[in-house]
From TrEMBL:
The family this protein is said to belong to: Belongs to the UDP-N-acetylglucosamine 2-epimerase family.
Domain of life: Bacteria
PANTHER family attached to this UniProt entry: UDP-N-ACETYLGLUCOSAMINE 2-EPIMERASE
Signal peptide as annotated in the record: none
Molecular function GO terms recorded: UDP-N-acetylglucosamine 2-epimerase activity
Entry protein name: UDP-N-acetylglucosamine 2-epimerase (non-hydrolyzing)
Isomerase among keywords: yes
Keyword Ribonucleoprotein: no
Coiled-coil ranges (or none): none
Species in which this protein is naturally found: Clostridium acetobutylicum (strain ATCC 824 / DSM 792 / JCM 1419 / IAM 19013 / LMG 5710 / NBRC 13948 / NRRL B-527 / VKM B-1787 / 2291 / W)
Domain UDP-N-acetylglucosamine 2-epimerase: residue ranges: 24-367
E.C. no: 5.1.3.14
Keywords noted in UniProt: Isomerase
Length: 378
């Protein structure tokens, strides 16, 4: 069989982190002619990950614009990939998760009748506006994908209910656990000196991220109010809030939390800094998806600042807890973990449902089997 031509496509930092170990496995395997295309839906944060994992894209659409909309992202990706697909004619493209890049790349591949492999397939909240636009992006991608790499049994069952054939679904675990083998170091020294000065042994350092679209406005305001109260009520707590660069988020956070004692507002860190902060901190508060998978791998309890999650396995396993954006609920649930050792231990010792760090290896093997069976049947 001739080499399988595969193009891995991603555009944001979270996608890049989760695709990087898979890109590396494909490059190592002599059965694949593996290329990488980035859309640069997010430019600066994406480039940090490419540098960390030593990935040089073969194609870079560089679409990011000031005040870009979902419409401009979608149309730019469609136009850019149409030309690449026409010239390259890959056997399959790989996309990840739920970004606008993922959906638009899948649609572009469908128009060219190119097979689509969906990494981290089958996550659902069943509410099309939570998270927005991610829930619809992943459902639309799932509707046209050919290979569905589901991280868990629950994700597989979601796809089966939607009519995806079982032979096209492959349970792999989550590739983000693979990525952490490259990034976490118990002796790590931070590039950001503020982080080196924190007293991780005697203080309860809480890592915070909150930036999702559905929390813009009142949600972020409530989160900031809750964070201020948590610090005021707990003298042994310090917060490290990694503040998204989007002014819609950044302006609200700085207005509410700048110059508050024991609150450290930092710009987003690169992946290695983030993973090692997570490894050293006491717990995590976030509205991110990926952190719900990453932090439990390191034994850190996670409070999810959202009303719904597409990662219910983590809730059921007890590694994360949904707290929404109600001020009182956030404060109460955080203080419970801070002040109740049994509650903390129960969450920190719960088994992470997202796998053993071999997801990328499994995906490569499944792809080989898939294409071997196609050749055999022809």
């Amino acid at each position: 069989m001739s080499k399988i031509k595969v193009i891995s496509i991603f555009g944001t930092r979270p996608e890049a982190i989760k695709m990087a170990p898979l890109v590396k496995k494909l490059k190592e395997n002599k059965n694949f002619q593996a290329k990488v295309c980035v859309t640069a839906q997010h430019r600066e944060m994406l480039d940090q990950v490419l540098s960390l994992f030593n990935i040089e894209p073969d194609f870079d659409l560089n679409i990011m614009k000031n005040k870009q909309s979902l419409t401009t992202i979608t149309s730019s990706v469609l136009h850019g990939l149409s030309e690449i697909f026409s010239a390259e004619r890959p056997d399959i493209i790989l996309v990840h998760g739920d970004t606008t890049t993922t959906f638009a790349a899948s649609l572009a591949a469908f128009y060219e009748k190119i097979a689509i492999g969906h990494v981290e397939a089958g996550l659902r909240t069943y509410d099309k506006y939570f998270p927005f636009p991610e829930e619809v992006n992943r459902k639309l991608t799932g509707a046209i994908a050919d290979m569905h790499f589901a991280p868990t049994v629950k994700s597989k069952n979601n796809l089966l209910r939607e009519g995806v054939k079982e032979k096209n679904i492959f349970i792999t675990g989550n590739t983000v656990i693979d990525a952490m083998k490259y990034t976490v170091d118990s002796n790590y020294v931070f590039k950001n000196d503020q982080l080196n000065k924190l007293d991780y042994k005697h203080k309860k350092i809480i890592m915070v991220t909150a930036h999702r679209r559905e929390n813009w406005g009142k949600g972020i305001e409530n989160i900031c109010t809750a964070l201020r109260r948590i610090v005021e009520e707990n003298n042994d707590v310090e917060l490290v809030y990694l503040v998204h660069l989007n002014p819609i988020v950044k302006n609200v956070v700085y207005r509410n939390l700048n110059n508050i004692n024991r609150v450290h507002l930092l710009p987003p860190l690169d992946t290695k800094e983030t993973h090692n902060l997570m490894n050293k901190c006491f717990m995590v508060m976030t509205d991110s998806g990926g952190l719900q998978e990453e932090a439990p791998h390191l034994g850190k309890p996670v409070l999810v600042l959202r009303n719904v999650t597409e990662r219910p396995e983590a809730v059921e396993a007890g590694t994360v807890k949904l707290v929404g954006t109600d001020i009182k609920n956030i404060v109460d649930e955080t203080c419970r973990i801070i002040n109740n050792k049994d509650e903390y231990e129960k969450m920190s010792r719960a088994i992470n449902p997202y796998g053993d760090g071999r997801a990328s290896e499994r995906i490569v093997d499944y792809m080989l089997d898939y294409f071997h069976s196609l050749v055999k049947n022809h």
